[in-house]
Amino acid sequence: MSVRQKLIVVGNGMASVRFLETLLDLAPNRFDITVLGDEPSPGYNRIMLSPLLAGEISISETVLKPRQWYRDHKVTLSLGSGSRVTAIDRSGKLLATANGQVLSYDHLVLALGSRANIPDLPGSALNGVMAFRSHDDVNAMLQAAKQHKNAVVIGGGLLGLEAASALSQQGMSVTLVHNRQVLMNRQLDSVAGGLLQQELEQRGITFIKPARTVELKGCEGQVKQVVLDSGQSVPAELVVFATGVQPNKELAARAGLSCQRGILVDQHLQTSDASITAIGECVQFGEQTFGIVEPVYEQARVAAHCLAAKQAGKKVAFVSPTTPVRLKVTGVQLFSSGDFEGRPDDRILSLHDPHASVYRRLVIREQRIVGILLYGDTLDGNWYQSLLEQQEDISALGQNLLFGRQLTAAA
Amino acid sequence: MTECPPQSIQTTCAYCGVGCGVRAPVAKEAEQLIAVAGDETHPANYGRLCSKGSALGETLIDEGRLLYPQINGYRSSWDQALDELVKRLKQTIEEYGPESVALYGSGQLLTEDYYVANKLMKGFIGSANIDTNSRLCMASTVAGHKRAFGTDTVPGCYEDLELADCLILVGSNTAWCHPVLFQRIRASQERRVKPAKVVVIDPRRTDSCDIADLFLPIRPGTDSILFNGLLVWLALHGKVDDAYLEQSTQGFADALDKAYETSPDIGTVAEKCGLSEVDVECFYRMFADHEKTVTAWSQGVNQSSAGTDKVNAIINCHLATGRVGLPGSTPFSLTGQPNAMGGREVGGLANQLAAHLEFHRPDDIERVSRFWQAPNMVQQPGLTAVDLLRAVESGEIRFIWIMGTNPVVSMPDADRVKAALQICPTVVVSDCIAPTDTGQCADILLPAAGWSEKDGTVTNSERRISRQRRFRPPTGEARADWAILSEVGRRLGHAEAFAYQCPADVFREHARLSALDNDPEARPRDFHIGGLAELSDQEYDQLQPVQWPLRSRTDNGTQRMFADGKFYTPSGKAQFVPIQETISAQATEAYPLLLNTGRIRDQWHTMTRTALAPRLNRHKDEPFLELNPADAASRGINDKALVTVRSSYGQSVLRATITDQVQPGQVFAPMHWTAQNSQTGRICSVAHPEVDPYSLQPDLKRTPVQIEAFHARQHAVLICRDKRPLPDTDYGVLVKGTDCYRYELADTENGLDGLRSELMAALGPHIVQYQDSELGIEKTLWLDDGKAVAVLMIGSEYPTEVDRSWLETLFASDAPEQPSWWQVLAGVPTSGCAGGKQVCACFGVGQETITAAIREQDLESVEDIGKTLKAGTNCGSCIPELRQLLTAIQVEEV
User: Fold this and answer.
1) Which residues in B lie closer than 8 A to residue A350 (C-beta atoms)?
2) Distance (Å, rounded) from C-alpha A272 to C-alpha A385?
3) DSSP 8-state secondary structure symbol assigned to residue B123
4) Are B521 and B626 found together in one domain?
5) What are phi and psi of B5, to 5 degrees?
6) Number of H helices, E strands in chain A
7) What is the pLDDT of residue B830?
8) Cross-referenced Pfam families, in alphabetical order (chain A) (predicted)?
9) Interface residue B349 vs chain A (CB under 8 A)
10) How many Å lie between the alpha carbon of A393 and the closest alpha carbon of chain B?
11) CB A10 within 8 A of CB A278
12) Any CB–CB contact under 8 A between B543 and chain A?
């Protein structure tokens, strides 16, 4: 009987769990697996934090796998701040944890995730200033919502909008500050952004944009006001920063792995050390870092396959997909994919129904769809996405493409 | 279609010369839509109606009605308007003489209107310059009848069409233009053990070919050659009736000699007429072999520079075989208009005197003058239509009164007619409709009572006089034409001569005049309705349809004429007319195609009334040009593309319909569209003003033209809930739908961008919009309170994929649930909703619905379609189209 390889997975988020699931399926008994996570609870679905904050679901519904699952699969699970990895000794294939443990590995998987950007502004350390990343953040925000009236969310991306909407649902008076004119500008154009804003305004959220936050003012350690570059100040007992994330690369950097914005990986998710794989939001693949779940799941799948196939010599490659962003921002359907803005000589199809709050835009280049933006009704998103992915020539589909699959077929 | 309440009025249809009886409910107010039905007791139609007749009730709306008199565009009272009219009339006569006054009337006037107009002009104003649009319709037949029979007499009756063993339709799309007669023919064919042989002679393969055993696609204008050839063939084969020739005719030898010159043998005939020898011989044998042969003709014969000769070439063959006025055996002119015949009877044409009395007989002039007590009796014929308008142009005519017709649309070289009217010092127009092309040239506009408000008589193509009865009060201040004319007569100082109190007064006088000296000893004439001269008012009201002549109160009328072989010529014998070959306008290098014009199934004349009924606009919704695939291909013209058709007189832009139903070298356009509903659809502005030398009827069937593709930069379809002026674009057509108006537009520049801004300003910013940057497509939907008020679709190409009939249904007040606005902008209904282009106007059944039913329910016959969808079961005029759809699908499936 051969000795089982020791595999350590650092991180217990969505990438980690999807990786484990795949690997256990492919090679159930080959590895002796340990998972280390610095949050106290088992891995949870970060996408569910918004409904959790809105009070729509309970914590248990966010959990990805219960502890029993790890036991059933003979995976050692070590959670809590003590399990945080502090150093990696690559030459000795060892790592150290915060509580002084030293573990050896044959192969190491880093799924370290990312953290929120909280800019270094005057007052950013005041109580009531936080990010929106974890169960702890949600708990703190729920607490604040019980005690206070005014919240300011900084950042009009997806996360910021969801936070604002959830806090509004919790009864707070919410102002959202965004540094651009268009909300969710990485996924939406001005028309769709305008429709979204209109929708959220109807739910009581106030928008100030474009505006930058220059200072947070407080009283007795508690934040009280957000000061904007215009000089305007907005009352706030809770300030949530949703201004983007940065990959957690520091541990890897200290260990001498090649890093830029994130931990650099190749198409097999291998770092500059052949014994170390990295997946999820901590990695950088080419120029890309990752913030949405689909490519992360794909990385987890590819990494598991590569590891399982090591002996057979077969390797699967990761190709960063043109992943559509399918979002449901507080009940509003959104679908954004590819180059939805397009170039000046692209063919643009657009459809705007302000009454039904429906907007559609397709960008077509050389008879192929290269960009999709759907707001309000995303039923045809998957169809367009398949046309985009397969680079299908759309000239045969007639003039009613933008009206959807049914009306295209009816024409 | 719909059951009428028992208390209904019997009247007659307003449209074609068939003169169908109609039942209409009595209405107290001009309000809701009225459903009419065919009068099952009327001998013209026995209850049948065509699509136009069925929709009569839908045209009884206020939209477009001329409600009150106007002087120079301003409302006036009747008194002011008549004062102004009479003042100008007197001044004109004083300064320029009575010949400077003209009246241009219409085959849609009632006999009583016509009679008073004729009397006023010829007896009291003293000008014979009274002509009518009947000149465009059947003047050649009048001339032909007179040359052959000595009088303008239709020998036969409708029953003959059913009794004939051989039926020849010449230049007559009976299926579309006289649909009820076509139904009667079809029904009799179905009843008969041995159906009649049917020959259709027409340059176009029309829907009338649906019942044809033999179709002769004749080269335009060569009908006389064909019938001359028939005369020769009959003579050579011993098929002439020698006894009849001897007893009842004169001039056979001369006619035969001339015929032999043009048409010596079948080979020559076939060559000249563009037909196969086999077909020509087949036709000649059919004619020869059937004692009971009816040759029926319409505008294809009449509207020709050799129209009168064509009529006589046909009549010659009937005379040679003794087939005149016998049951199922006669030449038969199918008149175009509802009362062209009545007009002929009163003498309402410039070269007729009155009541079949003639200018060329001085004693006739004296008779009429004495009868009318006329102070200013005319002594010679006046100017006929084309010349009359030329005299307006030259300034010889300085006062023209146009009644119930639209010469700016219907006359050839129509732009010149319009220009002439624009410079004429006084133009009076009486009409029931306000916005007409001709009305826009008027100085004085008089509101005339329309169908349903008018009361009088009409005569149909078989000499049958019927009462057209009033069943609604006049709209606005409208008055009957006879009453307006009489009032003018009285204001000119002829109180006694124009003292009529009611139409019956006029009719009795007309009947008395027809009987004046009308006896073998004095001045025998065919037209004699002396039997009606003593009708009481009540008897007049209750008058049942009756065929003239009827010479006494006990006379029940006359079904057929000339069966005795006696005619109204000086010798009492019918005259053969030698027919020469006529050289009409030919295609040239510059104008290589021949333009034919004519009617479509669901419109009447210049659409002033039929276009008010949405369902009549669905069959053919845009003015179009039919052309052969070969002519289209050589010019790069696609189906549905816009095409410019141009003659040396004018030009028109139309939608191309590519079909092999027209032959190479020929094109066809409908005559209906006007400047009110199209920018460029007035085809008569292209038509040449050539006329027949005898009848002076214009040749509207063969104008040399050129065509080319019309290149538009933008195309658009606009549908609005409320009517808007036709936008000033290079191409534009207005189509009335149910509770909406549709505009088909195109522009060579970016003229439609302005339209969008205009609509935005007018209709507000509540829009849904679609854009395609590459195809230049912009679709905009305007909403008001959640309902569509307008949708505009602009693109660089004609939006063929947009299902207009479906889109229009969204605007209907009784529209079912609204679809999504996207679907509206896509312009395509999801499956199941699409009806497609309308085929059956009576039940509103579209082509898609029919083809789907044929495919899915395996329908095999027109009867199956009728049982399943009702299509074709009312007027039946769509049956040829249903059959074409069936055949197309059956061919496809084989």
Assistant:
1) 769-771
2) 34
3) I
4) no
5) -65, 155
6) 10, 25
7) 58
8) Pyr_redox_2 (PF07992), Rubredoxin_C (PF18267)
9) no
10) 16
11) no
12) no
pLDDT, tens digit, for every residue of B479-491? Answer: 999 999 999 999 9
Distance separating the N- and C-terminal Cα atoms of chain B: 37
The mean of the pLDDT values for chain A is 90
Size of interface A-B (CB pairs under 8 A): 71
- Contacts of A159 by beta carbon, 8 Å cutoff, 6+ apart: A50, A132, A242
Residue type, B734: L
Please list every residue in chain A whose beta carbon sits closer than 8 Å to the beta carbon of residue B825. Answer: 351, 403
Closest partner CB to A349 (pick from B772, B820, B831): B772
Q: Show the tokens assigned to B532.
A: 């009606």
Question: Per-residue pLDDT tens for B39-48?
Answer: 999 999 999 9
Query: Cβ distance B43 to B160 under 8 Å?
Result: no
CATH number of the domain within which B683 lies? 2.40.40.20
User: Amino acid letter at A107?
Assistant: H
Residues of the domain holding B847 = 838-893
Q: What is the CATH number of the domain that holds B866?
A: 1.10.10.1100
Q: In Å, how far is B780's CA from the nearest CA of chain A?
A: 10
DSSP B305-361: TTHHHHHHHHHHHHHHTT-SSBTTBEEEE--SSTTHHHHHHHT-STT--BTTB-TT-
Min Cα–Cα distance to chain A from B822, Å: 6
- Tell the burial category of B202 from Cβ atoms under 10 Å away from its Cβ (0-12, 13-18, 19+): buried
| Residue B802 sits in the same domain as residue B853 | no
CATH code where residue B118 lies: 3.40.50.740
Closest partner CB to A353 (pick from B768, B827, B828): B768
Return the residue in B770, B779, B818, B831 with the most chain A beta carbons within 10 A, the one to mutate for interface testing: B770
Q: Give the separation between CA B133 and CA B174, rounded to whole angstroms.
A: 20
Cα–Cα distance measured from residue B203 to residue A241, given in angstroms and rounded to the nearest whole number: 83
**ipTM entry:** 0.76
Alpha-carbon torsion (B828, B829, B832, B835), positive or negative: negative
Q: Is the dihedral of CA A145, A149, A154, A157 positive or negative?
A: positive
Does this model's pTM top 0.90? My answer is no
In a domain, B463, yes or no: yes
Same domain, B528 and B454: yes
In which residue ranges of chain B is pLDDT below 50?
1-5, 832-834
Instruction: Using DSSP, state whether B183 is helix, strand or coil.
Output: helix
d(CA B97, CA B398): 10
Is B552 part of a structural domain of the chain? no
Shared domain check, B806 and B734: yes
Nearest to B584 by CA among B695, B707, B693: B693
Single-letter residue type at A336: S
For B387-416, b/e burial (b = at least 16 CB within 10 A) is bbbbbbbeebbbbbbbbbbbbbbbbbbbbb
The answer to whether residue B856 is domain-embedded is: yes
The answer to whether residues B472 and B380 belong to one domain is yes
Instruction: Report the residue from A346, A350, A403 with minimal CB separation from B771.
Output: A350
Q: What is the pLDDT of residue B569?
A: 94
Structure confidence at residue B3 (pLDDT): 46
Cα B229 to its chain centre, rounded Å, is: 30
Please indicate, yes or no, if residue B323 is contained in any of the structural domains: yes
Domains of chain A: 5-115+245-309 (3.50.50.60), 129-241 (3.50.50.60), 333-409 (3.30.390.30)
- B 791-820 → A contacts, CB under 8 A: 801, 820
CA distance B783 to chain A (A): 10
Euclidean distance between CA atoms B451 and B432, whole angstroms: 9
B804/chain A closest Cα distance in angstroms: 13
Residues A273 and A79: their CA atoms lie apart, in Å, by: 26
Note whether B360 and B402 are same-domain residues: yes
A373 SS3 class: strand
Domain count of the fold of chain B = 6
**Same domain, residue pair B264 and B353:** no
